[in-house]
Amino acid sequence: MRRWNGWGDSSTEYPLGDAAAQFLAARLGPGAPPGDVRFEAVAAHVPDARLPIHPAIRTDAAERVRHARGQSFPDWLALRYGRIGAFPDGVAYPESGDDVRALLNFAQDQGVALIPYGGGTSVVGHVNPPRDGPPVLTVDLGRMNRLLHLDAQSGLATFGAGVPGPHLEAQLRAQGFTLGHYPQSFELSTLGGWIVTRSSGQQSMHYGRIERLFVGGRLESPAGTLVLPSFPASAAGPDVREMVLGSEGRMGILTEATVRVVPLPERESFRGVFFPDFASGMAAVREMAQASLPLSMLRLSTARETETTLALAGHTTVIGGMERILAVRGHGGGKCLLILGATGRSVVARAALRQAREIYEAHKGTGLGPAGVVLGQQWSHSRFRTPYLRNTLWQMGYGVDTLETAVPWSGVTGMIAAIESGLERALSAFGERIHVFTHLSHVYPHGSSVYTTVVFRLAPDPDETLARWTALKRAGSEAVVAQGGTISHQHGVGVDHAPYLAAEKGALGMGALREVLRCFDPLGLMNPGKLIAVADTEPTP
What integer pLDDT is reported at residue 533 of this predicted model? Predict the structure, then answer.
């Protein structure tokens, strides 16, 4: 069963051993496990719904609690302490585009705001009802999850937009195909959610980011239905499809999506490689990216993240032996771990791994032979379990959050330093330490993403904990903007990043976005407050 106040399935845990607990306590101090409020206590205080009775809308407290928040750190605080503040007034489960159109008509007639809901995995506030304003109806697309059409000759598949990652891949696999889009939230997040937040999968070097995979579909908006034909290419003016990408529910509800799919790969291989320092590793992955090697992923950790990964992994005897071997080869305390992957036809994957080895060895990288293959296999096996660590750390008294950006290669080192030092200063004002570490999660010929994780102690008082997180979020975001990075490489904008969007888009760009949203949603009923503040999209008098 899905956790209502944490990550994932309640039957899945991510245990940490004593050594890992000691590692965190040494860096942050002992954590104090908080006491979580019970679901029944939260449900008992859900206010009466402000919606008229409708046969397709559920207004019971349990449904409204389960759709009230996503997975951001403030969402966790609200759920764990029962301080949710605002609930949707109802939840609907449409099964077709016609059902969605009927809900849109109802919303416009009644002055009801609509929030599209996929997997509820947003970490920046996409699915949260506003505290003030009209009644809110959350539209859960979970029943729109079928493969509607497969054009095997063209490599195009059309799905209901509410299909979650595993269900999508299972339906394609039965036909011998794959989409290959694997964000860390893969188990829970949906195709529609990936599209409207411009998601990036872990193997996007091979399969492509979602903007390359999404080729067409159907969007139901308050102003009408937008049909996006699936052309292989077009020079017919600006691409309206690009407006839907990243629109975060502000234009309407994506009901169908057509995506590019490919035959299942003959081979998929991941392996771990160590470098003596981050500069050597970064030079190697940059060279691989700029050489356009047919790899599926390159994920390079800084020395601190490498240390943390090994410390939390357990298996102290095995890792201790590996560290001794690395030390002999000159990889000491500054060593950095690269996970690289190759996917596709066997002959191409083998050639890609061989070329990658030539490059990383030229930059003093060590593959460790079979041990490196085991490291890669372990990463692949556990990559969708990592978010469950948030549950474990919370129960130990620690909070964790992430932020990410992307910059040209010339700005990567400065961005990492600015983010990490800004985060450290932010919490030192509270007399608290943090444990912060970074990796490059996606690399491109001209630059890289920068993905930073920060762990900090929870305070006895949730207001104090929220103040700590707010200081961290502000410091990290301001560092990103100051260093010229995008405010989001893969998480989207939502509420948390909205204050920083104008720095990236500029005044004219923001004005153009507002006009697009008004065109599709003249009354401002679609997912208010997300992407651009509500006041900026009010209808023109």
Answer: 73
DSSP state letter for 498? G
Contacts of 390 (CB under 8 A, 6+ apart): 6, 7, 76, 400
Whether pTM exceeds 0.90? yes
Three-class secondary structure of residue 351 per DSSP? helix
Using CB atoms within 10 A of its CB, is residue 540 exposed (0-12), middle (13-18) or buried (19+)? exposed
**Residue ranges of the domains in the chain?**
267-383, 498-537
What is the pLDDT, as a whole number, of residue 410? 98
The dihedral through the CA atoms of 332, 15, 25, 496 has a sign that is positive
Q: How far is CA 103 from CA 91, 159, 357, 484, in A?
A: 11, 20, 55, 41
Task: Count other Cβ atoms within 10 Å, centred on residue 62.
Answer: 15
Q: What pLDDT score does 224 carry?
A: 98
Largest CA distance in the chain: 73
Sign of CA dihedral 161, 499, 131, 61: positive
Fold of 267-383: Vanillyl-alcohol Oxidase; Chain A, domain 3 (3.40.462)
Helices (H) and strands (E) in the chain, counts: 19, 18
Amino acid at 234: S
β-bridge mates for residue 435, sequence order: 455
**Which residues in the chain come in under a pLDDT of 50?**
537-541
DSSP strands (E only) in 345-442:
398-408, 434-440
Beta bridge partners of 138: 91, 115
The dihedral through the CA atoms of 460, 464, 469, 475 has a sign that is negative
Q: Provide the CB-side half-sphere exposure for 83 (13 A, CA).
A: 11
